[in-house]
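Sample pair:
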Amino acid sequence: MSVEATGAEAMVNTERYPVGDLDSKPGIALTKTCREEFVSSGLCILPGFIRSDAVDELVHEANGALEQAYFCDSTHNAYLTDTAPDLSSEDVTQHQESTFVGSVAYDLLADGGALKRLYHWDPLKDFIAAILDKDPLFRFADPLGACSINVFVDGGQHGWHFDESEFTITLMLQQPDEGGLFEYVPQIRGLDNEKEIVQGVLDGNRQGVMQLPFTPGTLLVFAGNQTIHRVTQMRGTVPRLVPVLCYAENPDLVNSTEVRKLFWGRA
């Protein structure tokens, strides 16, 4: 176990989530339940995954890094693709959504800090691999995006979209004063009426839209490329803080230069 991983187990509520011993009877039962939840709904929600004292440590660390966040203020369509000029203006891919979000890059996080200790803890990686049924699973090799902190300040939002990646792992840390709600319509990618559903969502149709309560300490494993989702605009002086922990099936996988420049302002 690396030095960075030292003490990570104490951050996790292992009585409720025995991730350090997945071969035990409770560990096998946990993995089975989480895997079934993920397959059936496209999400695995683990409230209280991080102990309250560790949440406090993570929040303190994240707030101390806010000045290093790079902010992206842009528009995009729900599929995060370039607009095709030959398509009708009525096509769902022509609709633009607004996103204003900051991110603290991985290389700016404190070595030996709480978030890096958690990210480098192998039992967490192995637990996520079991939920996803991905074996082996590797920590992301990207020097900026391996593990970062999404920062939403007053006016911040992330418009409706599908993720490019197959899965996303996030940790809820700090809830804003107002707004900043995670909303989603699960597992619609590939349905015969997918674009009809997407168009309805973009037009404000609330049918099928679900909200995930923001509870600090919750770990979320999410099939983001199958589920359209957004973060509603937030207001207030308390930033919405959500670390993103990235893993991959390829040990050498990194983000493109374009993605790095978009989210962190450098390659």
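The mean pLDDT is 94.
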